[in-house]
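Much of our argument rests on the idea that a fold can be written as discrete symbols. This step matters because it turns folding into a mapping between discrete strings. The record that follows shows the chain in one-letter code together with its fold in token form.
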Amino acid sequence: MNTQSTIKNADGKLGVLIPGIGAVSTTLMAGVFAARKGLGQPIGSLTQMGKIRLGKRTEDRNPDIKDFVPLASMDDIVFGGWDIYTDNTYDAAMHAGVLDKNLLYSIKDEMSAIQPMRAVFDPAYVKNIHGENVKNEKTKMDSAKALMADIQKFKTENKCSRLVVVWCASTEIYIEENETHSSIENFEKALEENHPSIAPSMIYAYAALKSGVPFINGAPNLTIDIPAIVELAKENNIPIAGKDFKTGQTLMKTILGPGLKTRLLGIDGWFSTNILGNRDGEVLDDAGAFKTKEVSKLSVLDSILEPEKYPDLYKDMYHKVRINYYPPKGDDKESWDNIDIFGWLGYKMQIKVNFLCKDSILAAPVVLDLVLFMDLAQRADMKGIQEWLSFYFKSPQTKDGLHPIHDIFLQKIKLENTLRHLMGEDLITHLGLDYYEEE
């Protein structure tokens, strides 16, 4: 990493290109436009509303993060993207039903101006939705080149100085890494040969990195968790980050799990179920897509609780996750968690959590923060996997041989210390010989 003296300025417009113009992406766009007009606040966004402590507590230095690090302004963001449906973002937002119609009407001009480009889509990877606004290229490499042309055209027409691509499209069916993903050479050969193990999300990631654009994976897809894409990111000095935006039930697990472990309370079982009715719910109604999501959601507790270190407390814990498509819910996801815990002398207790959340309302500030932090990472010459952004993901991507950190409080410390390091400030560990007097 470099220090503040070598971070390039956030001059000019920042283009944000999004595969998937659905509930999450339109809620993000609408929120940014509304905030610009003073119609609402970007609540939940660390970059817009968060503060960071610098130095000793006695110094009382707590600037806003957006004033501490050179982030792009929300006023400089330009949105675009791809989707399998032709609806502009105003119509897509109205269809999603997340936001109040009067609010959307007040930003109709801005939203209506954003028309999705034709998407790269393969029904073998997403089986429960179908649209006509898709590219029809001969090979997957041709599709990648078409996306690269889209990226360049968008950058030129909108006079953007920099771009970020963030995947907000559907969850793809579960696949595992294989030989076609092992190197750039094998990956490009597979693109030319239309190999079935190359998913649409991988084509977007490849096109972005070949165009010199950072890529964020907001779904639990394999996408960038393969050697070929990691190698390409390093080779082209581009940051990548993923995967699967941390919202809803998993957010609650990363808050509750560390608390239970910190107090050394045992867990016999953790049963989680969800109902949701948006496009994500429809996609996850397919067993292959659900498998992808299930793997992402199940991995969280094992990492937090470390049953190999605390076998008496967590080794035999039963963990089950269920997701059910229920159209009347729309974007209002509802989750139930039943947690069977035990304490002193093995006495049993229970915790019940019923979280009625708006999935896209929780996701929108996550996407905004990731876009702005990834743009910062690019300007700071931070290439490859950005593990310091694990705070925002269900299944954080890590370097080979490392296990992800899922504890949201440790993730926040890592993120803030990365920002301190970038700006030449002392890291804060909350330790030290003179902690009580000086910290």
Summary: Confidence is low (pLDDT under 50) at residues 433-439.
